[in-house]
Amino acid sequence: MQSIVQPSIQPLNRQSKIERFIHGPWPFILPALFGLVFMRAFPFVWQIWLSFTNMRLGRPGEFIGLQNYRVLFQNPVFLSSIAYTGVFMVATVAGQMFFGLLLALLLEEDFKGKAVYRMTFLIPWIVSGFVAGILWQLMLVETRFGMFNALLDLMNVPPVRWLSNARNAQMSVIMVYIWKGLGFSLLLMSGGLKIIPQEMIESADIDGASYLQKLRLIKLPMMKDIISVNIIFSVIAALNSYETVFVLTGGGPGGATSIIALVMFNTAFGDGRNQLGRGSAIGVVMFVVTLIFVIIYVRKTNFAKGYGKP
Description:
This protein has helices at about 1-25, 25-50, 65-70, 75-105, 115-125, 130-140, 145-155, 165-195, 200-205, 210-220, 225-240, 245-250, 260-270, 275-300. The longest helix is centred in the N-terminal third of the chain and has 32 residues, at about 75-105. The protein has two domains: about 1-50, no CATH class; about 70-300, MetI-like (MetI-like fold). By secondary structure, the protein is an all-alpha fold.
């Protein structure tokens, strides 16, 4: 009897497992998991391998160990790009945070056309980096036909060399990236203000707290997790963006605006060098720097432990 029943149970068990798989979450998770592995994990591992080779476009590479890394840290162009990238990252992140919070506080008030203003500030974030570079290049034309120099001409001020002067070009690139990423900071800051319980604000009003006191003692502490997320993503974006500066200045004049991501692109695909191995090494350095920053920042701010707490 047992030999007759046993074969009929096993197919039922197999069928139930198949049904549980089909009706469970895995059919929805697997496509994204495969995409993550093949579009993210595999290229990253391949990049690490390429950084130890001398591969060029159209030519197979040979394993050369740490030679690419030694050459990089002896290259003055790469070292100067690291220095400017640090200034660029701090300035753009600070500018996006400050103006994003300021605009979020202004848009928190009720007035006509608030939705239109919010969408207007979000447009730069949506626009492609190449398109943003072209638009600002036209506005920063150094003759009187450029928009900014035309405004200066109306005030009888001589035209400014926005992109051909090294210091002005560095400031212009920072200004453009603050404008470009402002919408992202505004979006996060506005969401952070929405989650603050209105009862706390009303209690502070009853106690006679001023606007600055409510901002310093209630709103900013309640938004610390949103601010942390904003800083992390803004730093990652600043370290990995190159499209706008590629179109705007090309890294010039004299390499003054060469950020590390642009040096990586030019090394791997530009300037006729096509040094994929060395460009991959720059990418690995960028990843390590970003990872170290995120780990230190999360540990110092206790972001993971204090998530969701005021």
